[in-house]
């Protein structure tokens, strides 16, 4: 008997928690389909009496959401590719190659992780300003191409690969780059996927950096664009909700498809930490 | 080896963003900075017309949301990538002219015989600093009282009139709020100076900042009384409380028919006019009179940034935008009232459903928007203390006295 | 043999070159630049003047700063233990023999995927004084309508709820992985010895979970200290609650990019850095005392 009650309590708790977790999203959807007048009705309605699919069209008319989307997509994509390429190259070098100063340089990289991001913000902003890159696509992804965390993560994974696999390639006469490209890289695919996911999530949702470097309506990201919509003198709630869902949708779909990789990847950062 | 090419190709994706830079041969590109998404399409049309008449010039519009516009302008001016032609406004004009960030326009005005007398005087003067003209007036905003005819009918209250007094308005608001469930009488945008107290204080014969910009008017009994009168609207149940208005915004509440009256700026007329649910039963009258019947006007000016590489082309564009033809076009689109007086009536005629002539008439008795060298600093103090009055945590008298002290200090430091 | 050594060195430096250059230009040098800027005042339109310790002195006497620091500590002290406890409980529950584990994991992870702008927007609406669904539900219990986000007393706690909501799934996943790495044999041995489920939890699960708890603790602590996005989205600039809910980073953003006082803001960032470093070092120091190695 006790066991059954126990099981029931477990399900009950998890379901309650689940409801609390998802209610805001459900409410976002429901509100986005109402008219402005209905959204401010008391008592609030559970289902919109007139489904306003048009709100989603209005969002694109009110703000250049199409441009936001492209800016966010491109900058995130470039950041992911950049990090995968650069951090894997560096991670391999630190893991397997010998060169003078290697340990010291890596230590310096690690200290970057200890520092709160705000320290870098103003100087990075001024660099972008000096390069005349304020308000450009490049400004969005440039500092994000290089990651101490990514290097650290991939170095850890490279170190777990048995040396025998490399030895075979060395005997074949490959130089270190070929070993990296042909042998090592394919072997750390799970780590690459993890890094790609973490970087994509970070890039897509990032707010402060895009907010300060790109201020033209046509160069903003979804995150920053949504934030500036909220800050205006008037706010049409249903349209704001529709905009929020549109902004979230791509990452949501990406997550649902790659759920397993997301969860496994994030879980693994804990164990390697 | 093939794989190295793939690597290089990947790396070259990096330079996608760098392709932003314009490489148009022989054409002069003028960047035009503004902040209103409602007005942008109209200016795009005008820019296209200008480009047809001047085939060697291309206009690129940069729309920045207002909350970021000034930060961005400061940053891009420092970085040398500021737009050539910009929108300048009252709170910022003195800062920019004092730091010599704008091109003086007197010579060009004289050379092309532009008659600045054809523009609203208050706006022209706003952009004249120490005798030099830095901006050409673009538009003028005025405030008026907007009301919902249906809600007045439901409550059985007669419609507002152009000669209403503050007490008339309050009485009607209290009546509507008590009779109609879930509806408020009037929602004044307390958080918006131009929409509220910058009008109400002068209407009670007070002032915000002295003529010489040396002292604050908040110490005077007229100002204190005006603030108190605004607070009374909440206490006497003519208005929702501050938090409600703050969270839902006055215009939004009016648009969702939760409030019968609101004070509204002329630049807000366009979206309300296009809302079919409400535009059939809206009326507009002059703001109710207290001791006087004045309204604060503010208007944007076209200016040229100092760092521009194309001053002549920039001037040609401004000349075009300030012409009667362009102003008629702007007025007909209904987005804003031009500062060019002859075009103003066309703005009202654009509104088929709502009679907005009250906004034009309000221009007859106007005072200009209060500014100084460091407007942002003292208006921040002002808004912070007034917020306490609106939420009832500080009395009008105490708040105004505190504003006077701090504002005077800031003004003293300016000179 | 020498050839091999130079070959390794050549490729070593070449392969780290992009990351090395990038991190140098965008992180390492900026790190020192920030400290330099904190001793200067950067003009509105460029140019900087040395002001020595002026910025730090101004911060020291600034009431707003101390209030924001107090707020930030409040955020940390409430959100971190509460959030991690909830995540732990959920992880433990998910680790039992139940069905639909995958579905639950996904549902709890959803808030992590949402961007702060979107989450902030919907929660702001939920918290709305007159039309928000929270006040509507509470009114059934006789509660008056409260302005959760704009009332100075409640504002901070309202933000805390959202902060916890956004992070629960993330920590839960990491803790779940930690739980799954505990050998089942330990539990079996304990059961044979007659230990109850509760005893098992406190004497096996918790101690062996401490490495994961430590990791999650540090990550959550540091990120909570830096809270900005959600406050920016939810608390109105003209609200009287702004003082009671502003965090140090909110203040930093305001001075750096709204008031355009970048020297002062750099000093704020430097102070934040020292505080976080101190706390992190402290965490590592007491690690031996409670974390199972």
List the helices and strands and how they pair.
The complex is a heterotrimer of chains A (273), B (415) and C (293).
Chain A (H helix, E strand, L loop, with lengths): L1 H31 L3 H4 L14 H9 L2 H32 L5 H13 L3 H13 L6 H5 L6 H12 L3 H9 L4 H12 L1 H17 L2 H6 L8 H9 L6 H21 L1 H14 L1
Helix pairs in contact in A: 1-14, 3-14, 4-8, 4-11, 9-10, 11-15, 13-14
Chain B lengths: L1 H11 L15 E7 L5 H14 L3 E7 L2 H13 L6 E4 L1 H9 L7 H6 L9 H6 L1 E2 L2 E2 L2 E2 L1 E2 L2 E6 H7 L10 H14 L4 E4 L9 H7 L17 H15 L6 H7 L1 H6 L3 E7 L3 H6 L7 E4 L9 E3 L3 E4 L6 H11 L2 H10 L3 E2 L5 H6 L7 H6 L3 E3 L6 H16 L5 H19 L1
Parallel strand pairs in B: 1-2, 1-3, 9-10, 12-15
Antiparallel strand pairs in B: 3-13, 4-5, 6-13, 7-14, 8-10, 8-11
Helix pairs in contact in B: 9-10, 10-19, 18-19
Chain C lengths: L1 H36 L2 E3 L5 E3 L3 H8 L1 H32 L6 H13 L2 H11 L6 H7 L15 H26 L3 H9 L4 H29 L3 H6 L7 H4 L2 H11 L3 H29 L3
State the CATH topology of chain A.
MetI-like fold
How many strands, which pairing sense, and closed or not: the largest β-sheet of chain B? 5 strands, mixed
Summing up helix and strand content along with how strands pair, one would put the structural category of chain B as: alpha/beta
Q: How much is the radius of gyration of chain B in Å? A: 24 Å
According to CATH, the homologous superfamily of chain A is MetI-like
Number of domains of chain B: 2
Oligomer: heterotrimer
Total helices of chain A: the number is 15
Number of domains of chain A: 1
- CATH structural class of the largest domain in chain B: Alpha Beta
CATH level 3 topology of the largest domain in chain B: D-Maltodextrin-Binding Protein, domain 2
CATH architecture of the largest domain in chain B: 3-Layer(aba) Sandwich
């Amino acid at each position: 008997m006790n066991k059954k009650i126990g099981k029931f309590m477990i399900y009950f708790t998890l379901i309650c928690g689940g409801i609390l977790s998802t209610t805001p999203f459900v409410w976002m959807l429901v509100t986005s389909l109402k008219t402005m007048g209905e959204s401010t009705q008391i008592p609030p309605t559970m289902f919109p009496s007139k489904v306003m699919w048009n709100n989603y069209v209005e969002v694109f008319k009110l703000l250049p959401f199409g441009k936001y989307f492209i800016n966010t997509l491109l900058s995130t994509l470039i950041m992911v590719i950049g990090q995968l390429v650069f951090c894997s190259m560096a991670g391999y070098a630190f893991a397997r190659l010998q060169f003078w100063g290697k340990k010291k340089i890596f230590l310096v990289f690690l200290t970057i992780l200890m520092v709160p991001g705000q320290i870098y913000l103003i100087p990075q902003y001024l660099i972008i300003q000096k390069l005349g890159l304020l308000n450009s696509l490049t400004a969005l992804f440039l500092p994000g191409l290089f990651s101490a965390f990514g290097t650290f993560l991939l170095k850890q994974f490279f170190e777990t690969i048995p040396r025998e696999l490399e030895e075979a390639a060395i005997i074949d006469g490959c130089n270190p780059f070929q070993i990296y490209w042909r042998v090592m890289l394919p072997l750390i695919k799970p780590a690459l996927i993890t890094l790609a996911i973490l970087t994509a999530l970070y890039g897509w949702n990032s707010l402060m950096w895009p907010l300060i470097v790109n201020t033209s309506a046509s160069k903003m990201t979804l995150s920053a664009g949504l934030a500036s919509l909220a800050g205006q003198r008037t706010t049409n709630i249903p349209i704001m909700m529709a905009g929020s869902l549109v902004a979230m949708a791509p990452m949501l779909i990406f997550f649902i498809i790659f759920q397993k990789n997301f969860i496994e990847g994030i879980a693994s950062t804990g164990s390697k930490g | 080896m093939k794989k190295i090419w793939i690597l290089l190709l990947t790396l070259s994706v990096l330079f996608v963003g760098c392709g932003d830079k314009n490489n148009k041969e022989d054409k002069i590109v003028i960047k035009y900075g503004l902040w209103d998404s409602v007005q942008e399409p109209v200016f795009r049309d005008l820019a296209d017309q200008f480009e047809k008449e001047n085939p060697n010039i291309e206009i690129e519009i940069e729309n920045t949301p207002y909350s970021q516009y000034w930060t961005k302008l400061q940053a891009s001016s420092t970085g040398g990538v500021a737009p050539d032609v910009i929108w300048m406004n009252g709170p910022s004009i003195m800062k920019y002219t004092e730091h010599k960030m704008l091109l003086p326009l007197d010579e060009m005005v004289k050379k092309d015989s532009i008659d600045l007398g054809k523009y609203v005087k208050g706006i022209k003067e706003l952009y004249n600093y120490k005798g030099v003209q830095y901006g050409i007036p673009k538009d003028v905003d005025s405030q008026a009282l907007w009301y919902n005819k249906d809600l007045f009918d439901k409550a059985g209250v007669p419609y507002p009139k152009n000669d209403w007094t503050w007490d008339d308005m309050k009485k009607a608001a209290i009546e509507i709020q008590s009779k109609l469930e879930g509806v408020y009488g009037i929602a004044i945008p307390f958080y918006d100076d131009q929409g509220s107290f910058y009008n109400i204080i002068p209407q009670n014969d007070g002032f915000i900042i002295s003529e010489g910009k040396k002292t604050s008017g908040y110490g005077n009994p007229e100002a204190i009384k005006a603030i108190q009168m605004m607070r009374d609207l909440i206490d006497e149940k003519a208005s929702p409380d501050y938090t409600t208005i703050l969270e839902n915004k006055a215009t939004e509440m009016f648009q969702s028919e939760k409030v019968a009256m609101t004070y509204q700026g002329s630049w807000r007329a366009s979206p309300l006019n296009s809302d079919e649910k409400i535009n059939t039963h809206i009326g507009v009258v002059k703001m109710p009179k207290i001791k006087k019947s004045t309204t604060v006007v503010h208007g944007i000016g076209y200016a040229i940034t100092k760092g521009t590489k194309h001053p002549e082309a920039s001037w040609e564009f401004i000349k075009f935008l300030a012409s009667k033809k362009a102003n008629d076009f702007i007025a007909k689109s209904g987005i804003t009232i031009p500062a060019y007086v002859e075009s103003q009536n066309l703005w009202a005629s654009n509104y088929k459903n709502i009679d907005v002539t009250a906004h034009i008439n309000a221009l007859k008795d106007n005072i200009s928007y209060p500014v100084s060298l460091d407007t942002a600093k003292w208006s921040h103090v002002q808004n912070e203390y007034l917020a306490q009055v609106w939420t009832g945590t500080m009395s009008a008298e105490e708040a105004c006295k505190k504003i006077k002290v701090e504002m005077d200090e800031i003004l003293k430091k300016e000179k | 043999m020498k050839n091999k050594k130079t070959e390794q060195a050549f490729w070593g430096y070449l392969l780290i070159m992009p990351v090395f250059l990038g991190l140098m230009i965008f992180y390492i040098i900026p790190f020192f630049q920030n400290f330099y800027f904190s001793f200067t005042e950067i003009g509105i339109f460029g140019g900087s003047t040395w002001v020595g310790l002026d910025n730090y002195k101004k911060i020291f006497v600034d009431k707003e700063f101390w209030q924001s620091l107090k707020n930030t500590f409040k955020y940390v002290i409430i959100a971190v233990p509460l959030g991690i406890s909830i995540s732990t409980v959920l992880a433990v529950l998910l680790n039992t023999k139940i069905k639909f584990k995958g579905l639950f994991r996904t549902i709890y992870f959803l808030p992590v995927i949402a961007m702060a702008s979107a989450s902030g927007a919907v929660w702001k609406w939920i918290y709305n004084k007159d039309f928000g669904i929270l006040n509507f539900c509470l009114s059934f219990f006789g509660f008056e309508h409260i302005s959760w986000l704009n009332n100075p007393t409640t504002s901070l706690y309202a933000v805390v709820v959202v902060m916890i909501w956004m992070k629960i799934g993330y920590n839960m996943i990491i803790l779940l992985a930690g739980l799954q790495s505990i050998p089942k044999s330990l539990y079996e041995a304990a059961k044979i010895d007659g230990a109850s489920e509760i005893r098992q939890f406190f004497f096996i699960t918790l101690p062996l979970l401490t490495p994961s708890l430590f990791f999650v603790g540090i990550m959550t602590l540091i990120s909570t200290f830096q809270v900005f996005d959600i406050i920016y989205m939810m608390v109105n600039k003209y609200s009287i609650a702004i003082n009671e809910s502003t965090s140090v980073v909110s203040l930093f953003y305001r001075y750096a990019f709204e008031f355009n006082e970048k020297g002062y803001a750099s000093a704020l960032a430097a102070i934040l850095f020292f505080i976080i470093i101190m706390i992190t070092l402290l965490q590592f120091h007491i690690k031996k005392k409670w974390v199972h190695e």
